[in-house]
Amino acid sequence: MTDTIDAFRQSPPLPTKPIARRAGTGPAVAAQARVLAARPRGLGHLRGWETEVALPVAGTFTTPARGSLRADAVLQAPEDGVPVLFVEVDNHTEPAAVVARKIEPGRDPRAR
User: Fold this and answer.
1) pTM of the full predicted structure?
2) Which of 49, 52, 47 is nearest to 71 (CA)?
């Protein structure tokens, strides 16, 4: 989830110390390697993210009913025009049909 949130935020990469190569690198090549491509503006601040958020189909947010879903991450960034964004990351730990049921609008995800 860290990489996913970082991608949404578009955090600038941290500078690293260049590694000296034995062949094929001169000063011009080393200077080119340090030029970073422009990144698009990201969404939200780190404090706007929550992970493993219960989405209760019954019960409450503090005590969700059995079978309620959990969003991998939720972003609230009204400053960027995003009142709420639910993120589900598929790491192939669930069958495609289960993931599809989670995001299909108007359908109970517990239904088979």
Assistant:
1) 0.57
2) 52
